Amino acid sequence: MHETSNKHFYQTLIKIAIPIFFSQLMGSILGIIDTFMVTELGDDALSAVGIGSQFLFLSSIFQFGLFSGLSIFIAQFYGAKSYKDIYRVFWMMLFIGLFISSIFLGLVLWIPEPLIHIFNLSDTPNQHVIDLGISYLSFIGYTFITSTIGFAISMLARNVGKVLWPSIFQIFGVILNTFLNYGLINGYMGFPELGVKGAALATLISSSVIAIASIIYLMISKEKALKVKLSALKGMTKSLMSKLIKTALPVLLNEGFWGLGMTVYLIAYGFIGDKAVGSVYLSNQINNIFWVATIAIANAAAVMLGNKLGENKLETARLWEKKFRKLGFILGIVLGVILFTLAPVIVPLFGNLTDEVTQMVVLILRVYAVYAPIKFLNAITIVGTLRSGGDTKFALFAEILGLWGVGVPLAFILSYFTNLDLYVIIIFVNFEEIMKFIITYRRATSGKWINNLTHIHI
């Protein structure tokens, strides 16, 4: 079958994207289940978990940036069948990832209260929210380590086209987490009643199980690319490591600045009050369910385009990028319409929320729905297209200009100096997506991202 045919493109896409989709869906469902059960404890508990989860979110985002940056090489080296290079990249991913997660763990265990206070900057901070947030962090912090291990192995498998078993582990983790949440939050089935601390403990246990299962999978896998040998590090020199970091660092910074930006948004909304923070947190959890298709397509694009560039099939990569762009726009419209329509139906399912929070979440979700097509395109271009060819510095430039040049300043100015409703502020804040689209669309169509990186042997 000819590689440029639609049939071959979509067959390859389905093979890679569907397992990623279900894996991401399970992760989003996990967040929804946590949120759904926590909302039964009231608005304060929702705000506390929303604040505490930001540190797990930040740790995960830095990991994603690191792993995405280095996975550019894994995808291309797999296309070139250079297995020792794959092993070296993986160990570098894991060791640096564990170092980063250890820093986050140390911070949340050492200074939890000052960290929680950052998100409670209104004139009348809610001490109950702060106390609940500290309780949540006392367990969730250890998840930084376990999630790093599982995520690193999952990214390795994903970039060599072996996504089935990591997806199965993710599904099992969600089932286990749901069971433990049900018992530990409210004290059912003989479990102690731990409230928000129970939600954190359930996440830690399920994350640990996924990490252990992933390690066992590497040990027994017959796929040569997954037989990662620690001895491969002997060939790693400082000069060669710097070549990897030169490409990966902009991706790490890209995701890091994006994650910090999302967190800073919550800090800005904290000037409005803790209900604003809780509303945005719940909105994001619901939106994540609709966002999984975007993540799946964008990551599949990174793998597929990276493999073709590694095989030196540059024209195929160019044609596939155009297909991804068209597909992304269509799916963005479809998902946006669905989210806009279903928002008033979904939000009331989360019980024990005030009418104020419920109405605000519906409005925020509808803002997200309107921006869905352009956000879908931006994700595919930045995560898929530009990164697949190592054009990571430009991706970083686009992210910083849009998020920190437009979104973050607007969030602070409008939250602190105006009395606009939260959803109106979010309309203006999302102008960042328009800025990113203008910048990245021209880059993608120029073809400057088309680079074969496999000459960088490590």
Can you describe what's shown?
This protein has 458 residues and is mainly alpha-helical. The chain has one domain. The protein contains 15 helices and no strands. It has helices at residues 6-39, 43-79, 83-110, 112-117, 127-140, 143-159, 164-186, 196-220, 238-269, 274-310, 314-346, 355-388, 392-417, 422-429, 431-446. Helix 10 runs antiparallel to helix 11 (314-346) and helix 12 (355-388) packs parallel to helix 15 (431-446). The longest helix has 37 residues, at 43-79. The protein is globular, with a radius of gyration of 21 Å. The mean pLDDT is 87.
Can you tell me the residue ranges where pLDDT is under 50 for at least 5 consecutive residues? none
Mean pLDDT over all positions: 87
Give the % helix. over 70%
The helix tally amounts to 15
* Alpha-carbon Rg, integer: 21 Å
* Class derived from helix and strand content: mainly alpha
Major beta sheet summary = none
From the spread of the alpha carbons, the general shape counts as globular
